[in-house]
Amino acid sequence: AQDKKIIAVSIPAATHGWTGGVVYHAEQAEKEIEAAFPNIDVIVKTSPSAEAQVSALEDLSAAQKLDALVILPFTSEELTGPVQTVKEGGTFIAVVDRGLTDPAIQDLYVAGDNIAVGANTAKWLAEKLGNEGKIVVLRGIPTVIDDERIQGFTDVIKGTNIEILDIQYANWNQDEAFTLMQDYLAKYPQIDAVWANDDDMLLGVLEAVKQSGRTEIKYALGGNGMKDVIEMVMAGDPVTPISTPYPPSMIKSAIYMTAAQFSGQAPMRGSFKLDAPLITPENAEQFYFPDSPF
Amino acid sequence: MTSTTTNIARAEAPRRFRWADAGPFLALALVVLIGVVMNSSFMTGTNIANVVTRSAFIAIIAVGATFVISSGCLDLSVGSMMAFVTGIMILTMNRLEPSLGANAIFAGALVGLVVGALCGLANGLIVTLGKIEPFIATLGTMGIFRALITWMSDGGSIPIDRALRDPYRPVYFGNVLGVPLPVVITLIVVLAGAFLLYRTKYGRRCMAAGSNSEVARFSGVSVARVRTLAFVIQGLCVAIAAICYIPRLGAATPTTGQLWELQVITAVVIGGTLLRGGKARIWGTVAGALILEVIANLMVLSNMVSEYLVAAVQGVIIILAMLAHRFIR
Amino acid sequence: MTSTTTNIARAEAPRRFRWADAGPFLALALVVLIGVVMNSSFMTGTNIANVVTRSAFIAIIAVGATFVISSGCLDLSVGSMMAFVTGIMILTMNRLEPSLGANAIFAGALVGLVVGALCGLANGLIVTLGKIEPFIATLGTMGIFRALITWMSDGGSIPIDRALRDPYRPVYFGNVLGVPLPVVITLIVVLAGAFLLYRTKYGRRCMAAGSNSEVARFSGVSVARVRTLAFVIQGLCVAIAAICYIPRLGAATPTTGQLWELQVITAVVIGGTLLRGGKARIWGTVAGALILEVIANLMVLSNMVSEYLVAAVQGVIIILAMLAHRFIR
Amino acid sequence: MTMAAILPSAPAQPAAPAALVVPALQAEALGKTYGAITVLSDVTLDILPGEVHAIIGENGAGKSTLMKLLSGYVAPTEGQIALAGQQVAFADAVAAEAAGVVLVHQEILLAPDLTVAENLFLGRELTRGPMVDDRAMNRRTAEVLASIGAHCHPRDRVGGLPLAQRQLVQIARALLEPRRVVIFDEPTAVLANDEVAALLNVVRGLRSQGVAVLYISHRLDEVEALADRITVLRDGRKIGTWPAAGLSQRRMAELMVGRELDMLYPHKRPPATAEPLLQIEGLSVDHGAVEASLSVRPGEVLGIGGMIGSGRTELFEGLMGLRPSHAARIALAGKPVSDRTVRGWQAAGLVYLTEDRKGKGLLLDESLATNLTLQALDSLHPGPALDRRGELRALEQAVAEYDIRVRALDLNAGQLSGGNQQKLLLAKVMLTDPSVVIIDEPTRGIDIGNKSQIYDFIDRLVRAGKAVIVISSELPELVGLSDRVLVMRGGRITAELTGDEISEHSVVYAATSGEGQSAAPAEEGGGDPDDKHHHQHRPG
Ligand SMILES: Nc1ncnc2c1ncn2[C@@H]1O[C@H](COP(=O)(O)OP(=O)(O)OP(=O)(O)O)[C@@H](O)[C@H]1O
Ligand SMILES: Nc1ncnc2c1ncn2[C@@H]1O[C@H](COP(=O)(O)OP(=O)(O)OP(=O)(O)O)[C@@H](O)[C@H]1O
Ligand SMILES: [Mg+2]
Ligand SMILES: [Mg+2]
User: Fold this and answer.
1) Which fold, D3-9+23-261?
2) So what's the ipTM on this one?
3) Is D31 in the pocket of ligand 1 (CB under 6 A)?
4) What's the gap in Å between D423 CA and the centre of ligand 2?
5) Regions of chain D with pLDDT less than 50
6) Architecture of D264-349+434-540 per CATH?
């Protein structure tokens, strides 16, 4: 076991749908890679907070020499220092989704683009609404991802005549989204479209709209490419005809890319940006993973 | 033994009205009044129906919590337990649907009640036999239930079978003579709870255990049994809430019921039940649950508060409501 | 009055050793033993240093909580308060850096202490003057502090100025004669806490207020003042924890310190302090904080548990540790 | 009794002695009402420095209330208080204490988690620099404890002490500093002879130092032995003040009750011969009793005597399964008992009445009916639901039968006077219709008029073929009631006295012999200890 190469994977704990997907794909990658490459040991660790993630990094690197670290940081600022410390021990660093504040630390960066998630949705919506109308927005837990998506979205909307009636937190929670949407519906007699910045919340929104029987709502959009929502897109749902991918499987790609160098290939370095193209009925098939929990 | 006749005459005198007991209801009236003044959408039928229906979950669970708290304990695990029971119920219903059809809902509900009761029993036994501070014991089981639902759902969600959605829907969205079904269920639970707490031997013993467990012990009350049973009742209430909850969104996720324990305890305490046990106010608990839901509703309806500060304003209003009914006496 | 002399002799008799008091330390020994058996990396110097250093935050805050709890109250707001104080400190330091340079750290720390004390004072006054159940009052302020940090950071994060990072780093990463600085600070806080609680009038009165507030009042102890001061001490401890925390993560976010309140209370109760007040075990509290941190560490080091189930195993271990030290007597 | 000699003969007028001495404390037309209930009205009273002024009266007469008014615990609704001639209005008990007026409560008021010394010095801790000086406080505590004959340790946790010790701690707390006025509210209700004697000496000591002492007791022998003047309260009003000299116990009782009293103790019954109802062999209780064996027959009153800390309470709490214990053999009516819990015993027909009514007996914040029926819920309500009317009927019946003096039936138990709480507790336990009754301190705090009722009650039980075990620290009671007496010492049963062997002297001797403590103090407590008849029948 001594000569095994160790790849540590540090990700957020499965506290809601998307992070649940991340954990799922990371564990899948672990199983597949360990089966395929007996000289590689993948260790997946989840942490419920930035604080705990820093602790996990300390623990992992104190317990063994890490050959590589694949990390999906809770936040950029808070994890930059600790990851740098790990790198100083000679570890290959792969960062997923949120880049560190000092990009020099990252040997490999598989970037999600949260701003694009918001911006692409907003562009599509603006076009469909003809740059007019009233919309409401549900946001997640106050974190960087949420902030970036909202920023991407609102920046685009500002350039149109669309009015954002309200933005409130629903904590990426279906249930809270349902409640919040009920209240939006009670408050605003005319809503042309809804954007929940995550598909988990979208499910709650749709349920509330269905209950209200209101028909003026032309679009209810989410993001992240949750499989239930992609099914809706595939079925050509008129209210939710699109989603944006933000596949939790990006963690799997990063683990594979990192593992490659230990299976005889040259180390992959550099930045790989995942785009956030719209998922439409035409291309939905390729974003659909029926076995994923997300 | 002469002085008795005058005393007997007084025995029939009606109980005096106490302002302190009316506190939660006055506080509720106050927030409703604020709602009416602040926002015209507040008093619409749909909005009121939504708010009242939504408060059903917290109210039902809080009825159970009233038992646990008045017996001198505390249960932090209710939110997680709710998610866990929901998960088990959905899995059961999905499994049984092919053979039982829509009847799988009943079977699943039954299984849910049993599982809820067992979860409560586990809490109760850890606290009473294990002699562990309820705060710690139920914090432990809170982690356990939450982890189990996360594991059962692989961190994703456990949706109910499509075939069951429609027959199950009315349990949350339906109504009886215009009264939403969850409200009817809440009323039944509250009435049953009030009967059990105020009108039965068990309720009496529950209060005695919370009021002074030594006196209860010396009076032949098995404090451990009473408390264990309170936890079981709590588990049953959680299961009933879960039964109403499933048709609302049709899925259990690792976030289901998150932080509900705090809301539940808040509702109970706002309602006038003493956190240290011995005094229970079931109807106050219901008022407490409504107050919380109305405040949350007002936060969305009003435009005055930055989205970032909603939690702050909610906190301030809760404190003010408590202050108000403290100084109204 | 012949028996005077014998009684006086008894007054000097040594304190008996009580197994129950040793409970938390035995439980700590137990989890450490489990660690040693389970994982060879556990007992390495670096790992132990890491774990002990990390437990500083919870330990320091829990020292304050020991005061609050033993005086008969409870503070649920510590986690949010920690985030809020951290935010204020970073903002202050960033603002002052251009003029003061590295000295901005001292200024910021001072501001942090003042703000922490004021937050604690607010909690204390709401509880004592407002006569609101501490659970509710601090649940309210928990929401308020959390909302304030969310608002201050616009839902994002407040990073510390790069120029301050390096001079500030040693406060978490440095050491004195090989002992990590946060551990030194924790020791100072614990010693000060133990002195205050066990050796001063204030500590005595704190326990009296928690044991029986009526008796304390009749004895001329101002229960309200004692409790308010306990909350202020809690606020100061939160600020001290925040001072150590900033160099570790370098930013305040709306999720900083989330759920710490539960960890803190767990540490205090595992340590042997009674949740109903009147009995305080400062050193036990420290053992409690270490137990929690060791368990979390073992979860990371060992590979036996599915990542979904970590919380469950943690819950089980906490309950088992409590059971063990309950039945060891 | 020098002071009494100066006083004019009965009934003394409050203003009269002022010419000679300035009263330490004066009450002027004091009154107290709770809502619509008047518990005290128009009481005028003075206490002189260096006198022991006894207050006597029936249960619920308002004695404790008056004491609370005088010591700042409760504010009067009418009237004034003067301290050394100066009008005062105490803001609270702390202010009264600062002015030198201290009250020893009828009910224990101590912080259970703190040690004895910590309780004594709470709010006035001794310090050295910033630190509390535990050494000095423990030393001083040990001195005060020794001076009143308490045997607990300054560092004992108060919550773990037996009731009597807690009472002594409370007394010690009052005596820690020099006082101008010390008020004792039934300090001896839970004390045994030795401790009573020591306390009476303490009170005499205070008197000789010029302290004014107000003293409430239902033990009229104590009052007779101690008091210089006696004030009688009835139904919240003052009947009058008399010099103690020349007021016999019998006359005191008549003044209190307002009618003639006859026999106090019932005639003894013929010796019981039936098979024992309860048999205990080799019962040991942790921290309490060692290898105790006893039995009681139907138709018999078994008395249990002993000093404080002899383990009587522990023995029976252990028997009830309320403390860890183990026994070789326990049988009730010939059948071995397996379920040794309060509930199991109750089902088998045995109940235990605790000595600690506040801590273990009554839910002070609950209604009278709730308290009364708590133990008998199962027999009172056959189904799961409560029959509230039935409860109310039971309450009315209990109020009549046990003469519980309440001014309204919707009070909480905590609002009853001490003696009436005791009666409620007795009623509560008897509601289960037991065949064996164990009563720990049956007449704790009960007035003389009601005492004989309770004795009659016990007599009737026994004559009906039941068995009663009475644990009592009041020797006359033990002697007057019991057919047989077991005496405990150091957790063991050391003597069995039957028939004519039963006397105060023999009990005291058995309880103390071999410990090097003299039995002498008993004489100071109750007059002539050997004269049984004196106690069994009131002369006249
Ligand atoms: N808070 C209260 N509310 C209503 N009534 C009260 C309250 N406190 C006391 N009482 C009533 O005042 C009366 C006098 O009580 P008090 O305790 O002074 O009697 P006491 O003379 O000390 O009797 P005992 O000998 O039994 O101790 C009682 O009838 C009691 O029920
Ligand atoms: N929890 C306890 N732990 C240790 N010792 C105890 C405990 N409770 C009581 N004791 C001791 O047990 C002995 C018996 O005490 P107890 O006062 O009950 O006897 P008693 O004869 O009933 O006296 P009383 O006149 O007070 O009723 C005493 O020495 C007491 O200190
Ligand atoms: Mg009294
Ligand atoms: Mg006793």
Assistant:
1) Rossmann fold (3.40.50)
2) 0.87
3) no
4) 24
5) 1-18, 514-540
6) 3-Layer(aba) Sandwich (3.40)
